[in-house]
């Protein structure tokens, strides 16, 4: 009977952000500006890397892939969230919810792998500079990026297929502003022990393996530098890896809070705020973190501005 009722679930209700009515307009404008900034910043990074031949290097190739992934990650949830903030009936179709779970897990997992690949790129640049062009050749860079996407899709497909077999009954209100795997499973009326086991084992591996790979990579980098320490090498590591380390800290810090440090007794509002951090704030900040102190990006931006100015004067 439960299974029969499950087939009748055509939509879910989203709880949305718990915002006081008098602040809804302000929050809508704020999140809209943040989303537009995310789109503009990351697409500009992709454009600059595309048009400036000086940026056709492995480091900027991976940065462009990361920028595309950030745009995709935000676009999975934020437009729907903004639309729900202007309506009273915050619903999402069953198929739309399952699709949102799939793409969300895909892009979050891809972010993990891309940050790991970028750490490896920095390791080769610092620890094996003479062999950098040989090791990080174009074919290998494309293969690493493609592998990140493929592994993420398989990882997401596993969790999505397990979610699709779960039954839902009367309670169809998801205590979140988007369809996240754990909150969706919480409202299920069927046995989700297999889902929890896969999340714990496979999900844990997909999180901790990239995280500890990045950690081990930077330990190796600093160990190599400290063998023959010098101010020049120290500042080279900071200039080469500083932006990546900041992005890793921001991203993994919020992911750790959402998925590993939260509990059933913790405030749902705090978990939602942490989700906003990695879903909206981190993708928005990444272009600024990578470009504010990056001389190559600044020069490419100046070149683009001069081209636009020249074209406008010509017309």
Q: How would you concisely characterize the structure shown here?
A:
The protein has about 325 residues and is mainly alpha-helical. Helix content is about 75%, strand content about 5%.
List the helices and strands and how they pair.
Layout: H1 2-7, E1 11-14, H2 24-51, H3 58-85, E2 91-93, H4 94-127, H5 132-135, H6 138-164, E3 173-174, H7 181-186, H8 193-227, H9 231-259, H10 268-291, H11 295-314
Any key phrases for this structure?
mainly alpha, 11 helices, disordered N terminus
SS element count, helices: 11
Unreliable sequence segments: 1-7
Strand order of the largest sheet: 2-1-3
Order of helices and strands: HEHHEHHHEHHHHH
Overall structural class, as computed from helix and strand content, comes to: mainly alpha
What average pLDDT do the residues reach?
A: 85
Report Rg.
22 Å
Q: How does the overall form come out from the CA principal axes?
A: globular
How much helix is in the residues?
Answer: over 70%
Write down how many β-strands occur, each being a DSSP E stretch of 2 or more residues.
Answer: 3
CA(first)-CA(last) distance = 70 Å
Strand residue percentage:
under 5%
Biggest sheet architecture: 3 strands, mixed
How is this structure best described in words?
It is a single chain. The protein is mostly helical and 315 residues long. The protein is 77% helix and 3% strand. Mean pLDDT is 85; it is low at 1-7.
